[in-house]
């Protein structure tokens, strides 16, 4: 799910952004000019580069005084298993961009920032844009780096089966033990599978699924917040509100019906 998109000039030299973590996965590209990736204790300067940062990666941005640079920024709820594992292993990912790639990233960012609020296909288009950007980055990673990602035979299928079973039984509020039992594996084995394939615990993955299910249904005004909560695997609206605020930084009521198009009305609070 696309949460935020922006395209334009930034003056990080005059207004640097100190390192901090985000609540979303972040793609950022410098398309023109020179940009400093500000990591704790060091700054790495790059031109024409695309980065991907997991939510846990503390980073900021620096620039040269009076030297604006053109950047594209997209925040997404999740990326594919491959990029999740590689980005968490390395802290973040980055690839160099040639002229055609810069143009394509700019086109994708412009399309994402221009999505119409509440349009029926805006969510699908946002997901397609994020997926293409992820593929553009993955295709430019060194082959040797990709070789390190090789789930054991059957691991990805078992994780997919666990996710599918959990999604089908969300309203029953199953725990990790119930999922492991349904798959016929032990809890420790299920945790190892998720760590290898997704780079996180099953508890974390299932928590993200509950929030995402709630996001999908919050906009349905025919459902009460309690009904949304139960359908997304929460005990009640209070539990949903607490978890939603922790994950998204706002209560679910504010997200319902007043959601803005990513980047359409100003900068993201995380920027």
Describe the structure.
By secondary structure, this protein is α+β, with helices and mostly antiparallel strands. The chain is globular, with a radius of gyration of 20 Å. The two termini are 18 Å apart. It has a five-stranded antiparallel sheet. A four-stranded antiparallel sheet has the order 2-7-4-5, with no helix packed on it. It has two domains: 2-147, Sandwich (Jelly Rolls); 155-255, Arc Repressor Mutant, subunit A. It is built from eleven helices and nine strands. Residues 257-271 have low confidence and may be disordered. A hairpin with a 2-residue loop joins strand 4 (35-39) and strand 5.
> Would you tell me which CATH topology of the largest domain applies?
Jelly Rolls
How many individual β-strands?
9
CATH class wording of the largest domain: Mainly Beta
Helix count, DSSP H or I runs of 4 or more residues? 11
Task: Note the main sheet.
Answer: 5 strands, antiparallel
Spatially, the strands of the biggest sheet line up as: 1-8-3-6-9
**Helix-and-strand structural type:** alpha+beta
Order of helices and strands: EEEEEEEEHEHHHHHHHHHH
Low-confidence stretches: 257-271
The total tally of domains equals: 2
In what range is the share of β-strand residues? 15-25%
CATH level 4 superfamily of the largest domain: Regulatory protein AraC
Radius of gyration: 20 Å
Report the span from N to C terminus. 18 Å
The rough form would be described as globular
Portion of residues in helices?
A: 40-55%
Topology:
Layout: E1 2-10, E2 17-20, E3 25-32, E4 35-39, E5 42-46, E6 49-53, E7 59-62, E8 69-76, H1 81-90, E9 93-96, H2 99-113, H3 122-139, H4 143-147, H5 155-168, H6 176-183, H7 187-198, H8 202-218, H9 225-231, H10 237-248, H11 252-255
Antiparallel strand pairs: 1-8, 2-7, 3-6, 3-8, 4-5, 4-7, 6-9
Helix pairs in contact: 2-3, 5-6, 5-7, 8-9, 9-10
């Amino acid at each position: 799910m696309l949460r935020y998109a922006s395209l334009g000039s930034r003056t990080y030299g005059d207004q640097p952004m100190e390192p901090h973590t985000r609540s979303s996965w972040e793609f950022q590209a410098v398309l023109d000019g020179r940009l400093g990736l500000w990591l704790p204790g060091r700054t790495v300067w790059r031109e024409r580069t695309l980065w991907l940062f997991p939510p846990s990666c503390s980073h900021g941005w620096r620039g040269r005084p009076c030297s604006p640079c053109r950047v594209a920024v997209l925040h997404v709820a999740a990326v594919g298993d491959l990029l999740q594992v590689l980005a968490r292993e390395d802290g973040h990912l980055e690839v160099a961009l040639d002229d055609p790639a810069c143009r394509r990233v700019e086109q994708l960012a412009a399309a994402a920032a221009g999505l119409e609020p509440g349009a029926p296909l805006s969510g699908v288009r946002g997901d397609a844009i994020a997926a293409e950007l992820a593929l553009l980055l993955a295709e430019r990673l060194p082959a040797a780096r990709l070789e390190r990602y090789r789930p054991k035979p059957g691991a990805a299928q078992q994780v997919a089966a666990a996710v599918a079973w959990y999604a089908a039984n969300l309203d029953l509020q199953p725990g990790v033990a119930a999922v492991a039992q349904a798959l016929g594996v032990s809890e420790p084995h299920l945790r190892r599978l998720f760590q290898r394939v997704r780079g996180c615990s099953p508890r974390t993955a299932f928590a993200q699924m509950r929030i995402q299910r709630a996001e999908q249904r919050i906009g349905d005004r025919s459902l009460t917040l309690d009904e949304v909560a139960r359908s997304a695997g929460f005990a009640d609206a209070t539990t949903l509100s607490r978890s939603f605020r922790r994950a998204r930084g706002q209560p679910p009521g504010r997200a319902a019906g007043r959601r803005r198009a990513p980047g359409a009305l100003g900068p993201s609070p995380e920027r």
